[in-house]
Amino acid sequence: MLLRYFYRRIRTKSDVPDLAQEVFLRMLRVSDPEAIRNPQFYLYTVASNLVKEHAMQERRQETCSDVDEASVQQRLGELPSPESELDASQIAARLRSVVEQLPSRWRTALILHYRYGLTYQQIGDLLGVSSNMVKKYLAQALGHCRRGMSRWESMP
User: SS3 sequence, the chain?
Assistant: First the structure.
């Protein structure tokens, strides 16, 4: 019943299992379960709040770049032109420095995905998070790396 509730209320159907799991996790975190007079009503109240949070999150993500987008993947795969004045070893050293500054989960997701070729689901299983959360980690990590590298390239 809970899954059907989510299926009717959200656009991204692949998020339904994660939202249902989150409802039960929040239910388990209740410090005094005996204080809940109507558990079913409480469960659907939690679910309703998650639907609202999910909608806000989707609106925010619509303005961000999608890591899976072909143009983003193409830009990530582009190498500097041979005419570039920057030495490849300097670029690699700077990128290592920028990656080291990432929060550990972002850095782990980035390395597992781009170096070892793991899928979002595989990374999520290793980190104990959903594949959507892995996608968010990667988007944040890539944004941070892009900003860190562009600041460095603009230095005199």
Answer: CHHHHHHHHCCCHHHHHHHHHHHHHHHHCCCCHHHCCCHHHHHHHHHHHHHHHHHHHHHHHHCCCCCCCHHHHHHHHCCCCCCCCCCHHHHHHHHHHHHHCCCHHHHHHHHHHHCCCCCHHHHHHHHCCCHHHHHHHHHHHHHHHHHHHHHHHCCC
- Domains annotated for the chain, with CATH where assigned, are 2-62 (no CATH), 86-153 (1.10.10.10)
Please give the average pLDDT of every successive group of 10 residues along the chain, which has 156 residues.
89 87 88 86 90 83 59 60 60 85 91 87 91 91 86 59
pTM over 0.70: no
